[in-house]
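Long-time lurker. I teach an intro course on protein structure, and each term I like to show students one example going from raw sequence to a predicted 3D structure in token notation. This year I'd like something fresh instead of my usual example. Would anyone be willing to generate the tokens for the chain below so I can use it in lecture? Attribution to the forum is fine with me.
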Amino acid sequence: MQVIDQRKVSLGLLVFALFLSALFTRLGIWQLDRAEQKRETLAEFEKRGDAPELDLNRMFTRDGELMWGRYASVTGHYTGPIILLDNQILEGRAGYFVYTAFAVGESELTLLVNRGWIPVEGDRNRIPEFINLTEEQRLKGRLSHPPQQGLRLIDSNLVERLSDSVSRVGGIDFNALTAAGVGEELIPITLLLEATAAEGFDRDWTPPGGGEARHLGYAFQWFALAVTVVVVSVIILLRRTKAKSS
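-- Reply from a regular --
Happy to contribute to a lecture. Here you go:
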């Protein structure tokens, strides 16, 4: 009968505990880094909000990164189609962000306007009804990137045509939308329609960079697990040593 070497068992347990503790610590540090990134993003967003308002009819750049976070106004008209961004949760309810293509003046540029959130009413195959807006108007809002996707599915960039005027997507991909015929030249940024505009929906805009507290909470949990692994391992080793000596 083979005799188990208790020293090797104890050493293996110690190595495994140190590995887990190091892993959990690294995950905690990663969450702290994510919290810092969120904090910096929010600070930059607020800073850009203090800059002068952009007139998109007179802009000289098409760089979405340079425009991000700025307040802006634009004259033109909605051209359609309606783009429903799927899997948007508000107060525990599933719904869509409603994007509509907006022709910028007499140019070939098209801007995606986020008009707000609507709930999914029961059957997902039921197509929401929208009023056709074609008259020229001036919009105001804030320029922002579309929501990031969580789990990126293979078909998340496909444009699902629900009707002649309404399509549904799993993520906003400007190249995919352009290929699907949404506008002649999409500006790589979206406009969060101001709350006072009549043609919008639920618009409780959350600034990017939110969720810092969540990442700090995750970091605390990972660090707590790292400490727990070390403490439990020490207790087990001490008990094994005590049992062996007795």
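Some talking points for your students: Residues 150-154 have pLDDT under 50 and may be disordered. Residues 53-193 form one domain.
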